[in-house]
Specification:
Elements: E1 7-12, H1 15-26, E2 43-46, E3 51-56, H2 61-66, E4 72-76, H3 77-83, E5 88-92, E6 98-105, E7 117-120, H4 123-132, E8 138-141, H5 148-151, E9 157-162, H6 166-170, E10 173-182, E11 184-188, H7 192-195, H8 197-208
Parallel strand pairs: 1-3, 1-4, 7-8, 7-9
Antiparallel strand pairs: 2-3, 4-11, 5-11, 6-9, 6-10
Length: 210
Amino acid sequence: MRTDDCINVALPKGRLAEDTVELFLKKGITREGVVDFNSRMLTFHDEVNNIKFMMVRNMDVSTYVKHGAADIGVVGKDILLESAADVYEYLDLGFGYCRLCVAGLKDSDHSYRHDMVVATKYPSLTKNFFAGKGVFVETIKLYGSIELSPIVGLSDFIVDLVSTGQTLKKNGLVEVETMLESTARLIGNKSMAKVKYQRIREILEVVESA
């Protein structure tokens, strides 16, 4: 276990990372020019503020934090719930809003039944959601082009993130129900929260004042 005072931050590549760095710049946690989003580099070290950023896949942030490779991280609530990672959830950062929705073909029967198949990147959340309605479903895990699955008969419904709904509309699908609303969360490793208590506490206080 590391005991140095550098704070290691796992950020999901894309808009959430950009918004987080912008917030950290505004609050003086890091300096301008440390993180280069046009670079192929995966780590960026701010030696003045003793903080290191690592760029990882969205779905992997909680894993890096859980196992101590990162002290803190930023991840969507949807992914945090899906991973069920044993980490601290410190703050709701308020940005990165999205909705996780059930969707189906526009002209199909949208009633739920026990023998239906649901395609999704979120099998655990999906099973739990439908189980809460007393419906037990089969899930198929897909990583991309999820809208295609009901069109070709692979699934009855999909569960996916929806923003404007235009992608669904263009592919002849409609929203059936919103499962949950999600925003970015600041999470932390439970062991490092004790080892680096003072530094992590300082960052939380500064971010919370945003």
